[in-house]
Design a protein that fits this description.
The complex is a heterotrimer of chains A (347), B (322) and C (360). In chain A, 58% of the residues lie in helices and 12% in strands. Chain A is α+β, with helices and mostly antiparallel strands and 347 residues long. In chain A, strands 2, 3, 4, 5, 6 and 7 form a six-stranded antiparallel β-sheet that branches. A two-stranded antiparallel sheet of chain A has the order 1-8. In chain A, helix 5 crosses helix 9. With 360 residues, chain C is an alpha+beta fold. The chains are: A alpha+beta (347), B mainly alpha (322), C alpha+beta (360). Chains A and B meet through helix 2, helix 5, helix 6, helix 7 and helix 11 of A and helix 1, helix 2, helix 4, helix 5 and helix 6 of B.
Chain lengths: 347, 322, 360
């Protein structure tokens, strides 16, 4: 292994700059991955474990035992002092500084043990209680549905509308094409952040405030998408279109039978970008949606931020669930995403 | 999926065919453009006009016809300061605090982020084992939502969080990071860098890899030292990419809102309130919704962005023309 | 099958006129080649016939009907493109059937026509491949097959062989000719290569600068070119041209030599400025006697034949074709006898042929 790492291409021995580089990269892995890993580990901790200070790296769960005569499973403790020292006993209840314990082999005899004389018997385990609570107590599925609906529908509309415009701008010569291109560049200068007030008012006039469509429609046509697709469509030879025209295809048919399939790589890139923008979108949904039942996951996460206390147990689980689709998509499409983002300058 | 789309497209084909017969294939282009242009018109160009209309009118009324015309008062109110360097001397001190915060935020964030992106890109451009893996590691936070990024770091930085635990373990004093204005601001800059660095690293790495190998080989033949190679070859050839990265980072820096708002809510006090948050609070979150003031403020931000975007387009075009 | 007629067809992009009034009649079943240098408008003319390019003025008639206002699909034509323009995302079979599907042919009909065309073009084994997995020649066959299945009234070919290497080009040339003999459709074929035109055409239309220079059978064009341009364009190597003037019933060249021509063949007005054209095989090196004196600049010996390159005293380049092997060496001088029967005479002013009875 060490041999593998120290082997460099071309040269024999590692220069000190190589060591420095690997040290930097190692630190980078820690800094980039560490926090996310910590978040995921924390989300599998029980509420008690989350209160534990200093926090422990791995999630621990206290052992429980079900004894006859008791409905609920009982927590197991290891007694350190007193007559029961060295034994594992189950706690029936705790009153002040004293626990009422029973021995597993004698569940009817209560023994009183000061809480200072016992320590919990724990083992490393993933507690899914935070996740269960998310589905039971919160409208998580509702938020998930809202986010998914917005992402899928908005991406579909973006792809359709942008590819149609890109087709017209790349494959037709008509009067006014230059003006339209200038308009597209113009919209590049008007990000949502600088027209929040009028965007809200216009969307409100359409009666779309507080609906998912109010989030979807205003950003459905993107200048980035038009540019990206047009650039790609310019590389499709015009002769193929002429051949299709000779083959009796209507212009619309040329669009969806020839142009769309041939632009698949660019469309995939735009689809990934759009999914990312929509899934992670925050500011506009924050303004357009004010009723909790319409919240997206991002808004729901934000609303968890209490004034004084934060329900970290649920929040951590929800954060992980929000993050999972993005990481999954990234894992499979890393190369596409990277090249796509690099080729468009992000947004 | 395809089974669903095909019949749909065939249905659309019927009116489109009729339209083609009516307009001829050339003017049919407008039919393809129409949906996109309508959306652009309604949600990009019309808002610019509406924005100006609201910026020139006052009161908290929502309908334009109920709003009295106040001329440029919103603008003069916003820019009324004894000294622009002291927010407390301004009529609308919250706005100027936000402007100062944003200015500092941009300077620090763009500086650190582009610096570390360059360093990372240079290292990734070396003969590194598992380069793809490292690149992915630095890149993946770009995909995380701003809210998730904010929560990840809040969880670490909270009073009973992991960072304080580690500090305590090594015998250092703990800090309540998010309640201390300077620390909160510093961490906001940090997490913004953390989240976006990968994107700029990727662009810079692409720029580095676009430098032809033979230039380096020629330099090697000329017995140039590694420092000289970096200084005289890598940096000048990377300069166009660097400028693009800087301008892009500036454009995004001005618009920063999500992650900082989700991280601190603008606090403590107004220590991390940025300009976009001021617009949001003035127009949407405050008790009287001061649309006029919010519009005026966003026009001021828009002017900055238009200049920056124009510079960006000009540079990209110049780079593209070689 | 149908005939094609162009009547005063013009095409202008704004102020720039690229087709300046072309009249042409292609009979049913004829193989007609449009030939000319690049930029002469031959491809534009073909695209106007196809309907891909709107017509500015004049009429295009197919089978007697004016089709000016019909779209490409409604003219019943099929076209083979220079780049083949195969649909890259479709298999060969899908490429062949796409047009038939658009015409709402039945599945069974499509199947038989595709199979038939594929067998005829020997691409039946490739039907499930995609264009990127085919060689250049195979792609060419698929492109032709795509036209064949449509059973068009007229086939249009737009420089279809220019992307193939020399050997394959000769092979495909023969193949397209055989295809024409076999199905007998009217075909319009655009090329810049006069060899293709000569070998394949029933009729050749020579175009220059958006005008039809001459239209006729290949050997008619070769034997009696209507003007100096056609004379120079048809035939390889190129015809030699010498300037001179008519003096005393003969041509007095600017280099001083006099060439006697039969007066009953050409219109020889005394004192007229003329261009004398002679193909390389109309010049013969002679040991003695009168003729054109030329300085030899190069010799190509191909074994069975030789080409001698030289220049006259005023620097005009001369090419001589000589059967068999020659002893002439570069650097020397040679005297060339001119065969009057091989001579062509053109007016220097209009460059039109002065042959009596020649179409103007």
């Amino acid at each position: 292994m060490a041999n593998f790492i120290t082997r460099t291409r071309g040269r024999q021995r590692l220069h000190w700059t190589d060591w420095a580089s690997y040290a930097y990269l190692g630190f980078g892995v820690l800094l980039m991955f560490g926090p996310v890993l910590w978040l995921v580990l924390s989300s599998f901790k029980t509420e008690t474990e989350l209160q534990h200070y200093p926090p422990r790296l791995l999630p621990y769960v206290q052992q429980t035992v079900t004894l006859p005569g008791y409905d609920d499973p009982l927590l197991v403790f290891h007694v350190t002092q007193g007559p029961l020292a060295g034994q594992d006993v189950a706690q029936v209840r705790r009153i002040g500084l004293v626990s009422q314990m029973v021995r597993p082999d004698d569940p009817t005899t209560i023994v009183k043990v000061p809480i200072a004389d016992r320590e919990p018997v724990e083992h490393v385990a993933l507690a899914t209680s935070n996740y269960q609570k998310l589905f039971q107590r919160f409208n998580f599925l509702r938020f998930l549905w809202n986010s998914t609906f917005i992402t899928v529908v908005a991406t579909a509309i973006t792809l359709l509308v942008n590819s149609m415009a890109a087709f017209a701008l790349s494959k037709y010569e008509f009067r006014g094409r230059g003006t339209v291109m200038a308009m597209v560049i113009g919209t590049l200068m008007i990000p949502q952040t600088v027209v929040l007030v009028p965007l809200f008012l216009i969307t409100r006039d359409f009666g779309l405030i507080n609906t998912l469509w109010g989030v979807i429609i205003p950003g459905a046509a993107t200048p980035t998408g038009v540019f990206l697709l047009r650039q790609y469509m310019l590389t499709i030879p015009d002769e193929i279109l002429d051949a299709a025209r000779m083959d009796n295809a209507s212009e619309w048919k040329i669009y969806w039978r020839i142009i769309l399939p041939l632009s698949a790589p660019a469309i995939a890139v735009l689809a990934i970008l759009s999914i990312m923008w929509r899934w992670n979108d925050f500011l506009w949904p924050l303004i357009a949606l004010s009723q909790t039942e319409n919240f997206t996951l991002q808004l729901a996460l934000n609303s968890f931020r209490g004034e004084f206390t934060t329900d970290w147990a649920s929040l951590l689980a929800m954060t992980v669930l929000t993050l999972v689709p993005v990481v999954a998509v990234f894992a499979f499409l890393q190369k596409y995403i990277a090249t796509g983002i690099a080729s468009t300058g992000g947004k | 999926m395809l089974k669903l789309i095909t019949p749909l497209m065939q249905i659309v084909d019927v009116p489109m065919r009729a339209l083609q017969r009516l307009l001829g294939p050339r003017r049919l282009a407008w039919a393809f453009l129409a949906p996109n242009l309508i959306l652009f018109g309604l949600f990009a160009f019309l808002p610019v006009l509406v924005n100006i209309a609201y910026a020139l009118t006052g009161s908290d009324q929502i309908l334009l016809r109920d709003r009295p015309f106040v001329g440029v008062r919103n603008f003069t109110d916003l820019s009324q300061c004894a000294s622009y360097l002291d927010a407390n001397s301004c009529k609308i001190d919250v706005f100027w605090r936000a402007v100062h915060n944003t200015a500092w935020f941009i300077v620090l964030q763009v500086g650190f982020m582009v610096g570390f992106s360059l360093l990372t890109a240079l290292i990734l451009n070396r003969k590194i084992v598992a380069r793809g893996f490292f690149r992915a590691v630095f890149f993946f936070p770009v995909l995380l939502s701003p809210v998730v990024v904010a929560l990840i770091w809040k969880w670490i930085l909270q009073d009973q969080g992991a960072l304080n635990a580690v500090l305590e373990h090594f015998g250092y004093p703990t800090v309540n990071w998010l309640l201390n204005p300077s620390w909160a601001f510093g961490w906001a800059v940090f997490l913004s860098c953390w989240a976006h660095m990968g994107f700029y690293t990727l662009i810079l790495l692409a720029g580095l890899q676009a430098i032809p190998r033979d230039v380096y080989e020629a330099a090697q033949m000329d017995a140039a030292s590694p420092w000289r190679v970096f200084h005289r070859i890598t940096l000048p050839l990377l300069m166009p990419t660097m400028v693009v990265v800087l301008v892009l980072a500036l454009i995004k820096g001005v618009q920063t809102f999500d992650e900082v708002y989700a991280f601190t809510g603008g606090g403590p006090g107004s220590a991390t309130t940025l300009v976009i948050q001021y617009i949001y609070q003035t127009g949407f979150a405050g008790a009287p919704r001061l649309f006029g003031l919010a519009s005026a403020a966003s026009i001021m931000v828009a002017l900055v962005l238009v200049v920056l975007t124009a510079v960006q387009l000009w540079i990209t075009r110049r780079n593209a023309n070689g | 099958m149908a005939d094609l007629e162009l009547r005063g067809v013009t095409k202008a992009y704004g102020a720039a006129e690229v087709i300046k009034g072309v009249d042409l009649q292609v009979a049913e079943g004829e193989f007609c080649v449009f030939v000319g240098p690049s930029g002469c408008g031959k491809s534009t003319l073909l695209r106007m016939i196809s309907g891909l390019e709107p017509i500015t003025g004049g009429e295009v008639r197919i089978g007697g009907e004016v089709v000016n206002r019909r779209g490409p699909a409604e003219r019943g034509l099929a076209m083979v493109f220079q780049s083949y323009a195969l649909y890259p995302h479709m298999t060969v079979r899908q490429n062949l059937s796409f047009g038939l599907e658009n015409l709402r042919a039945t599945k069974a009909d499509i199947e038989t026509r595709v199979t038939e065309a594929a067998q005829m073009l020997q691409i039946d084994k490739l039907l499930d491949r995609r264009p990127k997995d085919l060689s250049g020649g195979q792609r060419q066959r698929v492109a032709i097959g795509r036209a064949v299945v449509r059973e068009p009234r007229i086939f249009l070919f737009d420089e279809p062989l220019s992307n193939l290497d020399a050997e394959l080009r000769v092979e495909m040339r023969g193949e397209i000719s055989r295809l024409h003999r076999r199905i007998g459709n009217t075909m319009i074929y655009v090329t810049h290569d006069q060899v293709e035109a000569m070998t394949m055409a029933d009729k050749i239309a020579v175009l220059r600068d958006g005008r039809l220079e001459q239209f006729g059978r290949p050997l008619d064009l070769y034997n009696a070119p209507a003007n100096a341009f056609v004379a120079g364009f048809i035939g390889s190597p190129r015809m030699n041209f010498f300037t001179g003037r008519i003096a005393g019933g003969a041509v007095r060249l600017t280099t001083g030599e006099t060439v006697a021509l039969p007066g009953d063949t050409f219109d020889m007005a005394e004192g007229a400025e003329v261009t004398l054209g002679i193909r390389p095989n109309g010049l013969h090196p002679v040991d003695s006697g009168s003729g054109l004196s030329v300085t030899v600049t190069g010799v190509e010996r191909l074994g069975g034949e030789s080409y001698i390159y030289g220049s006259t005293q005023d620097g005009t380049a001369v090419t001589v074709h000589s059967p068999g092997q020659t002893a002439i060496e570069p650097g020397g001088a040679v005297t060339l006898a001119i065969d009057p029967a091989e001579a062509h005479l053109f007016s220097a002013k209009t460059s039109k042929s002065l042959r009596k009875g020649a179409a103007s």
